[in-house]
Design goal:
Number of domains: 1
Shape: globular
Order of helices and strands: EHEHEHEHEH
Structural class: alpha/beta
Strand order of the largest sheet: 2-1-4-3-5
Largest sheet: 5 strands, parallel
Number of strands: 5
Radius of gyration: 14 Å
Helix content: 40-55%
Distance between the termini: 26 Å
Amino acid sequence: MIKIICIGKLKENYLKELINDYQKRINKYHKLEIIELKDSNILEEKKEILKCINTNDYIISLCIEGKEVSTIELKDKINNLLLTGNSNITFIIGGSDGLDNEIKEISNEKLSFSHLTFPHGLFRGILLEQIYRVFKILNNESYHK
């Protein structure tokens, strides 16, 4: 399973529609769960995130100091993790103050999609689009470039 743990609930209908659309698309290929946690202070967010993580999860924290990868590198990473089948792939998107260092330290990887700052709801859509693109590539299906 792929899990996305994110801080904050979406308020904008256009973002809800975007997320729902990509969630449906991805679920045709692989089970996807999105866990929305309450926007709070960074320590409370850390506690709530830790409650959602299983010991066998492969944790990928999304943060600015993470490694930037191409779509193909992300595809290879996800494919390799799915082939081993030993763990959930868990992406974590922090709140407005970012992620607590403890979350980053327990992560198997830290990824950055850019040095730019994105609104969290929009970034959730960007992450989902990339995951969808990964599955299209893995299944040798065409997808616009």
